[in-house]
Specification:
There is one protein chain. The chain has 200 residues and is mainly α. Among the domains are: 42 residues, no CATH class; 91 residues, DnaJ domain (Helix Hairpins), CATH 1.10.287.110. 36% of the residues lie in helices and 6% in strands. The strands form two sheets. Strands 1-2 form a two-stranded antiparallel ribbon. It has a two-stranded antiparallel ribbon with strand order 3-4. A hairpin with an 8-residue loop joins β1 and β2. α5 packs antiparallel against α6.
């Protein structure tokens, strides 16, 4: 850009004195009773008047701040509740495991609170264990699948299937071959899981 451009003719800068004079004219008088000093500071009006401020001079702002109490007039129980809610930003909270979501785990996948007559939302219902009268856990379902058993298998069937698979996969039954070692480990782990959860 050239210094003799026409654009420079249109730039006008206000004198610093006029800006300062306007700023001083915009300063309101102190709102403290009987004070005529310029109010250069804002002080919050308090609870119930959020976003509203008093205009005070420096001396009265300091005096106001020394006596300001947001909780003035509140009961102690209300103050405790306010402080507790302030930890979460005054948003609703709930305890872990008490969410209304129906898809939070294997035990809730049957979604009893959802009216789904065509079963569009759920691919399969979890069978309940007749022995314990509860829905099967995810690790129990995986263990039953590893043993090749259905979800409604009884504890006696689990024990019988476990014995059969161990005899079939053990290296002693296969002339010392370790080809089935991983499958044997998976069967033993599945049976241990079912035994630890009290399934059998």
């Amino acid at each position: 850009m050239k210094l003799d451009s026409k654009i420079f003719d249109k730039i006008r800068i206000k004198p610093a004195a006029s800006v300062k004079a306007k700023a001083e004219a915009a300063i309101k008088p102190c709102e403290w009773p009987g004070c005529d000093q310029p109010a250069k500071h804002k002080a919050p009006k308090g609870r119930g008047a959020e976003g509203q401020f008093w205009n005070y001079c420096t001396a009265h702002t300091q005096a106001y701040n020394k006596t300001y109490n947001y909780f003035d007039g509140m009961k102690d129980s209300d103050q405790a509740d306010f402080r507790k809610d302030a930890q979460t930003g005054h948003r609703p909270t709930w305890k872990l495991g008490q969410s209304n979501s129906a898809f939070v785990g294997a035990a809730r996948r049957d979604a009893k609170r959802i009216d789904d007559p065509l079963n569009l939302l759920l691919k399969e219902k979890i069978k309940t264990n007749a022995k314990h009268g509860r829905a099967l856990r995810r690790n129990e379902l995986e263990a039953l699948q590893a043993l090749g058993l259905p979800e409604d298998a009884k504890p006696e069937e689990v024990k019988s299937k476990y014995k059969t698979l161990v005899k079939r996969l053990h290296p002693d039954a296969n002339q010392g071959s370790r080809a089935n070692e991983d499958a044997l480990k998976a069967v033993i782990k599945a049976y241990d899981t079912l035994r630890d959860t009290g399934f059998c």
